[in-house]
């Protein structure tokens, strides 16, 4: 019986644990900072074990890794290199859904030397989006075509029927991830020219996009798209954009949060004796006073009736209620307000959208090829986000444990021996991908995507 250790028991881990225990029949150890969280995922099943693990518990880490056949790391990204180094010490394969960090990438040659695989970016975004994109690219090349432009979009949003708050957003993944993503720079390519978007201007750089048969959304750049040129096997003069989707109004509000320094998650401040009104007054350079809502609008160069100001008011940021946390960061207070108002009710559904459009040139035609996925969560069951993030990782883990993956080193799932069986299995278990091909005229260009 194979044994898998799953580090992390957060929002999106449950479907992977269920798959390992119920479909594969593996022994599964699940760790969390809180034992109760791990116990909830194991749910009393015979082959499951719930444990606690913290970063400083190096002996526990080494023991768990050495006793495992494979490790699935679902902890916050800064902890992945720590777990990866333990996997190196004990020659164990590891899978994670997070972006490959420089620290993780630096382990590539060591992993190859020891004959182990660290497979990363195999979740929803990054993950399914890039597997779909690479599958489409490879098919185009098999048909003697060349790729001129790619636009790929991903989203985790409330289902349309449960989009019932002014932010058009609810948390289906780690709330701290929102702040981390909001402080990340981005880049994309226009006919080979790199367009850099510094983190402080991320939410200025957005526009509206109509997705065929789905709806109209805001999009803004998602991390550094240029790093995928090599693993996608693209020419350097291609256009490549990876974007996040949000309901309209999100980016302007996030821009206001950024200008107010509400995304600061490093500086610990004293909140004792303050109200939220006092807190906001200090952010805009006032010691204390009435009409903080108007003063905040003036600080941001907005009118008092601006939608972003109304969203802040709806969150309770201008209320004269005491802050119960004595110390914390601005980000802590923002997330406290947001999770209070932007969490899913028990029977509400979330929605995952993945949409890839490729402009391809063939000897006798120019085509726009589209692959899309719109998947909703199960009412009272698993969220779409948790399934879309953790099941690709679980399916890849199964392939690795079956010795059906030859790759070694730090890898993305853009090799056919990963993406082909994973995408096929995802379709079999309810991930229904739609495809469409549009014949273009000779004057077709990237803007038509």
Report what the structure shows.
The protein has a seven-stranded parallel β-sheet with strand order 3-2-1-4-5-6-17, sandwiched between helices. Strands 10-11-12-7-15-16-18 form a seven-stranded mixed β-sheet, with helices on one face. Strands 8-9 form a two-stranded antiparallel ribbon. The chain is of the alpha/beta class and 449 residues long. The protein has helices at 14-24, 35-42, 58-66, 80-90, 102-105, 108-114, 128-142, 175-182, 228-232, 250-259, 276-283, 292-299, 307-315, 330-341, 384-401, 416-428, and strands at residues 3-7, 27-32, 48-52, 70-73, 93-96, 117-119, 146-158, 186-190, 193-197, 207-211, 215-221, 239-246, 269-270, 327-328, 350-362, 365-376, 409-411, 433-440. The model has no long low-confidence stretch (mean pLDDT 96). Helix 3 (58-66) packs across helix 4, helix 7 crosses helix 16 and helix 11 runs parallel beside helix 12.
Brief account:
This protein has 449 residues and is α/β, with parallel strands linked by helices. The protein has 16 helices and 18 strands. Strand 10 (207-211) and strand 11 form a beta hairpin.
Q: Could you give the topology of this structure?
A:
Elements: E1 3-7, H1 14-24, E2 27-32, H2 35-42, E3 48-52, H3 58-66, E4 70-73, H4 80-90, E5 93-96, H5 102-105, H6 108-114, E6 117-119, H7 128-142, E7 146-158, H8 175-182, E8 186-190, E9 193-197, E10 207-211, E11 215-221, H9 228-232, E12 239-246, H10 250-259, E13 269-270, H11 276-283, H12 292-299, H13 307-315, E14 327-328, H14 330-341, E15 350-362, E16 365-376, H15 384-401, E17 409-411, H16 416-428, E18 433-440
Helix pairs in contact: 1-15, 3-4, 7-16, 11-12, 15-16
């Amino acid at each position: 019986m194979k044994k898998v250790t799953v580090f992390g028991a957060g929002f999106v881990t449950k479907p992977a644990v269920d798959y390992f225990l119920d479909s594969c029949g593996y022994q599964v150890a699940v760790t969390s900072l809180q034992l109760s969280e791990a116990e909830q995922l194991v749910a009393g099943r015979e082959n499951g074990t719930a444990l606690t693990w913290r970063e400083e518990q190096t002996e526990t880490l080494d023991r768990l890794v050495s006793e495992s056949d494979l490790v699935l790391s679902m902890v916050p990204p800064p902890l992945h290199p720590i777990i990866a180094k333990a996997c190196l010490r004990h020659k164990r394969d590891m899978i994670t859904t997070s972006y490959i960090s420089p620290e993780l990438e630096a382990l590539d040659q060591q992993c190859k030397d020891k004959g182990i695989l660290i497979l990363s970016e195999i979740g929803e975004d990054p993950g399914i989006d890039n597997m779909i994109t690479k599958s489409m690219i490879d098919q185009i090349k098999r048909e003697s075509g060349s790729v001129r432009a790619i636009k790929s979009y991903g989203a985790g949003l409330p289902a349309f029927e449960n989009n019932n708050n002014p932010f058009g957003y609810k948390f289906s993944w780690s709330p701290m991830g929102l702040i981390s993503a909001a402080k990340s720079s981005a880049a994309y390519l226009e006919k080979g020219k790199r367009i850099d978007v510094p983190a402080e201007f991320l939410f200025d750089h957005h526009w509206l996009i109509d997705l065929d048969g789905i709806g109209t959304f805001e999009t803004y750049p998602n991390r550094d798209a240029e790093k995928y040129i090599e693993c996608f096997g693209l020419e350097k003069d291609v256009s490549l954009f990876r974007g996040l989707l949000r309901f309209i109004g999100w980016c302007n509000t996030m821009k206001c949060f950024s200008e107010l320094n509400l995304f600061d998650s490093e500086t610990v401040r004293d909140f004792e004796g303050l109200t939220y009104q006092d807190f906001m007054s200090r952010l805009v350079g006032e010691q204390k006073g009435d009409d903080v809502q108007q003063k905040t609008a003036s600080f941001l160069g907005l009118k008092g009736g601006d939608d972003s100001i109304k969203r802040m008011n709806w969150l309770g940021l201008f209320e004269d209620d005491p802050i119960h946390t004595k110390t914390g960061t601005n980000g802590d207070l923002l997330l406290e307000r947001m999770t209070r108002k932007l969490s899913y009710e028990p029977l509400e559904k979330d929605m995952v959208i993945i949409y890839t459009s490729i402009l391809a040139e063939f000897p006798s035609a120019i085509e726009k090829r589209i692959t899309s996925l719109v998947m909703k969560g199960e009412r009272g069951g698993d969220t779409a986000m948790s399934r879309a993030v953790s099941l690709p990782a679980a399916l890849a883990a199964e392939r690795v444990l079956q010795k059906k993956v030859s790759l070694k080193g730090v890898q993305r799932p853009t090799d056919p021996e990963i993406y082909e069986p994973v995408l096929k299995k995802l379709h079999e278990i309810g991930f229904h991908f739609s495809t469409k091909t549009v014949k273009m005229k000779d004057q077709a260009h990237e803007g038509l995507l």
